[in-house]
Amino acid sequence: MTDALTSALPTRAGVRRSAPAAVSTIALAAMVVLCASLQPDVLTVPGFSLVLSVAVPLIFAAQAQMILMSIGDIDLGIGSFVGLVTVIAATELVSSPLLGTLILFALIAGYAVLGALIHLRRVPALIATLGASFVWLGLGLFVLPTPGGTTPEWLASFGAWQPTSFPAPLLPILAVALLVYLMSARSTLGVRIRALGSNPTALERAGLSPLSSRVAAYTAAGALGVLSGLLLSSQTGGGDVSSASSYTLITVAAVILGGGSFRGGSAVPWGVAIGGMALGLVSVTLSLLDVATNLQSAVQGGIVLAVLAGRALIGRVLR
Amino acid sequence: MRIPSTSWRRIAAAASLATVTFLTSACGTGTGSNGDAAGSAAKGGDKPFIALSNGFIGNGWRQTMVAAFEDAAKQAQADGLIGKYKAINAPGDNSATEQIAQIKSLLLQKPDALLIDPSSPTALKPVIQQACNAGVKVVVFDSAIDAPCAHVIQNSFTDWATHAAKPLLEGIGGKGNVIVSRGVVGSQPEAEMHKTTQKILTDYPSVKTAATVTGMCDGATAQKAVLGVLSSVPKVDGVIGCGDGYGVAQAFTSAGKDVPAVTFETNGRALNYWKDKKIDNGSVAVMSDPGQSVAAMWAALDLLDGKKVPKHMTLPIVLVEQKDRDAWASVLKPDQYAAWPWTRDLFRQQVEAAENGGEPVQPPVPTAAD
């Protein structure tokens, strides 16, 4: 994270790019300090793991959302998709691991097809992914009408894994941010994906196919969605197609908090990790502060708006 | 009870939001920010800290359940039985992921016992195991959960369905046409209740099922569903439902028909309607008991004292028959549901009855003097 910030420091554009994430980082740090002052155990390894673990599947889904937002699309189906993956993980992946794995790959392929469809038929991604969300929901209800099932042993033991030397949830959060960073900022594929978001004409003039770039982006998003679902079911110990329905919009909030934009062209994997952690920490903070639960959603939204306002302010100062 | 103080409490909560956003580090445990769903007090030494996690707060039954717990816990705190209590409700629409997050942040505050009204029969298993591993006594109530380390307190859905159908069928003289209004089809409790209803109906061969609708145990939904079939069925003598009688009665009234025997909700609105309209046709009111949260608290205290509590206990359902109706109607607010007033002694008697196979204890019906 820090090297991403320092390497971005020299240029003015770089500062502008990482400023929103810096605002989120400050908010995150402030919340950690606040939580720790109310409950010192937050700073211990088990305490920090407890706080962070909820954010892990959310951050994976948010990285998927970030990739699609970097090409200027938006995914309204990610919540149902993650829910469907938990259902597959709790049913087929247990009864016949091979078939389950194949289904998960088929789901990723489904995302690739969705990307191709959006590109070839010029369907707005908003509509196509919204339509797809009902397909995911329907498939999930077909496989497992009521919440239930059990997750495979290896997945459950990963969910219960608690090393004493460092907070376990940090590992997947950092790993996925690094992976997405390498893909989006250090590979030609990443350049093509971002070019598709910022300047598709230039991409075409360069003789590169925008179709394959879009399909690649959707494939990566599908793969991250599958990982998110597996992690979620490792925490819930079962499958429930509606368990992640709130992810659809929270992932968008995480991307925006992390410095992404609706216009496309920018990839902010480290920012997304911070935005996701900040969102996860908000509810912990509110619970420690004894804010009335009936009011929590509103307060949560208020904090997100406050961080966004801070981001807009800094953006204006830097311009 | 709490209503007048709500608005300034909200202002206090909003003030604490400002505290967060302006990033001033508010030290001390949230002074003045005790929301209406949370009550905590100064540290009570080594007295236990009891926390309640509720998966969903969007209906009157759950509101009554949380209020019953808070009242009982406040009393227990005054009596020096517990040091501190806290009730949190997961925001959103019965979402298991939200409740898991809430339980995890509760665990950080190190409760001695955790009472859970679960939002999912499976998804809370790992986090409950985590709580048990941390040495917290876990009591799950309202619906069962398959977590070996937790104690479960429940109402019997078979009892519920039996009490909904039998008095009603007797009331209409054991013959005629009935509509069956099913609950949340696809859920496990509903399957159990529907099976029981079907079995009881076979004991009354002169009763014909004119229609089966899905009322979702919700007055408004049942009203629409029943209204939809009313024109196509013959004269209806009774509607066997699950706590949706008020809506069903509205459906019959708006269709210009006499209200048949129905199964009312156990809240003040439905009971007063039943009383004021002088409906006398075998109608009953039956629902599960929101006071289970209080019974769960006593179970947790007994467990902390090292007393024996069965792993799985079934407590009596709340059945309001015509003879008790007026007593209940006079003590309940419109959206408040009838709850058994569990005391520690009553709960202890119930445990002993369960262990020795004796008759289950029936808590007293409240009197208007309360």
Give the number of DSSP strands of chain A.
Answer: 0
Mean pLDDT value of chain B: 83
pLDDT under 50 segments of chain A (min length 5)?
A: none
Tell me the name of the CATH homologous superfamily of the domain at 157-287 in chain B: Response regulator
Question: With helices defined by DSSP (H or I, 4 residues minimum), what is the helix count of chain B?
Answer: 12
The helix-and-strand class of chain B reads alpha/beta
Report the sheet with the most strands of chain B, covering strand number, pairing sense and barrel closure: 6 strands, parallel
Oligomer: heterodimer
Structural class of chain A: mainly alpha
Order of helices and strands of chain B: HEHEHEHEEHEHEHEHEHEHEEHH
Q: Please state the average pLDDT score of chain A.
A: 87
Number of strands of chain B: 12
| Portion in beta strands of chain A | under 5%
CATH topology of the domain at 157-287 in chain B: Rossmann fold
Strand content of chain B: 15-25%
Order of helical and strand elements of chain A: HHHHHHHHHHHHHHHH
Describe, in plain words, how this protein is organized in 3D.
The complex is a heterodimer of chains A (319) and B (370). Chain A has 16 helices and no strands. Helices cover 77% and strands 0% of the residues of chain A. Chain A has one domain (53-288). With 319 residues, chain A is mainly α. Chain A has helices spanning 2-8, 12-38, 45-53, 55-70, 78-90, 92-95, 97-121, 125-143, 153-160, 170-185, 188-198, 200-205, 210-236, 247-257, 269-288, 293-318. Chain B is of the alpha/beta class and 370 residues long. Chain B has a domain at 157-287: Response regulator (Rossmann fold). Chain B has twelve helices and twelve strands. In chain B, strands 2-1-3-4-5-11 form a six-stranded parallel β-sheet, with helices on both faces. In chain B, strands 7-6-8-9-10-12 form a six-stranded mixed β-sheet, sandwiched between helices. The longest helix of chain B is centred in the first third of the chain and has 19 residues, at 3-21. In chain B, 52% of the residues are buried. Mean pLDDT of chain B is 83; it is low at 1-44. Classes of the chains: A mainly alpha (319), B alpha/beta (370).
